[in-house]
Amino acid sequence: MRLRDQLVAGGFRLGWRFARAVPEDVAVSASRRVADAVARRGGARTAQLRRNLAHARPDAGPAELDALVRDGLRSYARYWLDVFRLPGWSRERTVAGVRLDHGEEVRAALAQGRGVVVFLGHLANWDHAAAWSATELAPVVTVAERLRPEAVFEQFLAFRRSLGVDVLPLGDPGTFPTLVRRVRAGAFVPLLADRDLTANGVEVDFLGARVRMAQGPAALALATGAPLFPFGLHHEVFGGRRTLVLDVAPQVPVPPRAPGEPAREHRRRAVAQMTQACADALAAAVRAHPDEWHVLQPVFPER
Question: Is the bond preceding 301 in cis, omega lying within 30 degrees of 0?
Answer without folding.
Answer: no
